[in-house]
Amino acid sequence: MTEPTLRGADPTTVRDALADAESLPGTTGFAGEIDGRLVRDVLGRVPLFVDTDPAAASPNLAWAFEPSALEEPTLFPAGAAAPVGEPLPEPESCWSLPDPIPESDHETAIDALERAIQTATDAVRRNDRDVAVAFSGGVDSALVAELLDAPLYVVGFPDSHDVEAARTAADAMGRELTIVDLEPADLERAVPEVARAIGRTNAMDVQIALPLYLVGERVAADGFDALAVGQGADELFGGYEKVVRLDHRVDAETVRGAVREGIRSLPEQLPRDVLTIEATGLEPVAPLLHDAVVAAALRLPDELLADEDERKRGFRRVATRHLPTEVATRDKKAVQYGSLVARELDRLARQAGYKRRMDDHVTKYVASLLEDAPQSPGSD
């Protein structure tokens, strides 16, 4: 079977989006080559890389959906389109992130967001795929799981926050839960596989990717085709502390402006998650990143985003219509901490001689495991 040159959308949809400069044409993202041009959607939901190796005979002529296929892979900018082989364009030079006027009526905004999320999850259900959900017990994955009515899988070390949170949330929802218990040997084995798949060795990216990879392995082994995740909710709906504090981590002076900054960070983050899930043989499914949901999120006023009392307020209002209140209102830890993967990877690094006094000791440990690991078939 020939590898498609365009992923995530049909050619007609992309051609129309190019002609109309439509940033959110009703997809879950797209990227690839069409009519001699490389394209990547405005949120960068589908990874696309070009080879910028200066030693190549024709730099930028080679491109791929995976970094491992290229000598010097560089992400093609999100929201851009350019003829194959030309210098990389600027991000959002073709499609820009919409900036609509916020909806003034809160109930109208929440109703619109609920319809958008239903549209996104209905689209997943219509596809002929066996889907499981990476479930942490937080509101994001819980709402996805409830609307997809899909099996729940949580990954973590036995005493981890995520395993306990997922267990109590599943109980509250009346759902069964499959627990993927980890041990240190799982991390040692998976680190080089993950680093190779995502094309990154920095500690943070590897720590975030490891739980996804390890739960994906189990889901794939159980015969599923796709893994659904709650990715995007924190960026779209104001889930981070920094959007409330407006501290040195953001340039914006308003909550809504800070949320937009977070949304613009997605094109750099999402390739890591997509490539990780694909490395397990599964298709990634992220309903909360559907164009309809993004469009509704962009219309939320500050009051439905976050403040010192509550984050993701509008999203939680939708969730309370479908989930027990205790699940819809709970906070959770980032996956690398909630699963205890970050803690255990740090411990393994120190046991291997990479002490905390060393600069970026976990990254150095990851690089050492990758260097010592055998190459997978076809990687040369």
UniProtKB/TrEMBL annotation:
Q: What GO MF annotations does this protein's record show? A: ATP binding
SUPFAM superfamilies noted in UniProt = Adenine nucleotide alpha hydrolases-like
Please name the CDD domains in this protein's record: Asn_synthase_B_C
Q: Pfam families under this entry?
A: Asn_synthase
Q: Which InterPro entries match?
A: Asn_synthase, Asn_Synthetase, Rossmann-like_a/b/a_fold
Q: Where is the Asparagine synthetase domain?
A: 114-247, 276-356
Region annotation (Disordered) maps to: 1-20
Q: Which UniProt keywords apply?
A: ATP-binding, Nucleotide-binding
Q: What is this protein called?
A: Asparagine synthase-related protein
Species of origin: Haloarchaeobius amylolyticus
